[in-house]
Amino acid sequence: MVWKFPAPRTLAACVAVCAALLAAAPARADLLETVKQKGEIVIGTEAQFPPFEFVEDGKIVGYSADLLELVMAELPGVAVKRLDVPWQGILPGLAAGKFDYVVTSVTATKERYERYALSLPVADATVALLVRADSDIQTPADVAGKTVASQTGSAQLQALKGLGETLAAQGKGLAGIREYVGFDEAYADLAAGRVDAVAQSFPNLADAVKKRPDAFRIITPPFGPAVYFSWAARNDEDSKALAAFFDQGLRKLNESGKMRELQVKWFGFEMAVPSDALPVPIQ
Length: 283
Description:
The protein has ten helices and 14 strands. By secondary structure, it is of the alpha/beta class. The protein is globular, with a radius of gyration of 24 Å. The longest helix has 17 residues. Strands 1, 5, 6, 7, 8 and 14 form a six-stranded mixed sheet that branches.
């Protein structure tokens, strides 16, 4: 086959068309620069996860609120618009562009690690069990034959299902798993005897026991692999600079000791979390 090179006039027309298409193509947006120009950042939060984030006197407060305020001090002139959204809508809302960034307790699972730009760790998220103070449950294995609760769509629910499968393989599975929209409902049903235990991250359970020491106690050691809580950005080119900005702020708070100071304020103890990188989740 003989290739026929376009005539000069045709070639010139092609070049002109290509140039026009390139000129018409939208420039790639840098979300961090867009936020600076708008003077506002929209943050998605599930404010029903004390002491990380919860509503008090009409305002979202907690550990993450304090961290966010310190990080945002590096962006003077940018107002924070924080939306309170049910957990089930947080990550889908981020993917759909309803928020610029998510500041809530996102458990770093393998699937989320691959789908989103998860931040440096903000806290330990290893899962443990909460039981009534008078319960006969003494170890995670003792929930065999019991009904255990957790939150719909959460990583804690996945960890609980894993524990159930492990017990089932030993011929003594769970009686059932009950799912709740929020953990407060699960705690209420635990106190009322409608479930036997609640699977939740250890720091949150410590807060639940702190508030109701006569009603609840924690089963240790936590079960499953070590995992961490992170914040999240979209995993695209536009969000890279914004994700890096939050990582830089969290690294600074971790290495300065301010993060540990806030952990003692809100949880009553320190949690050792990496400041260099988020460990790759194994599940």
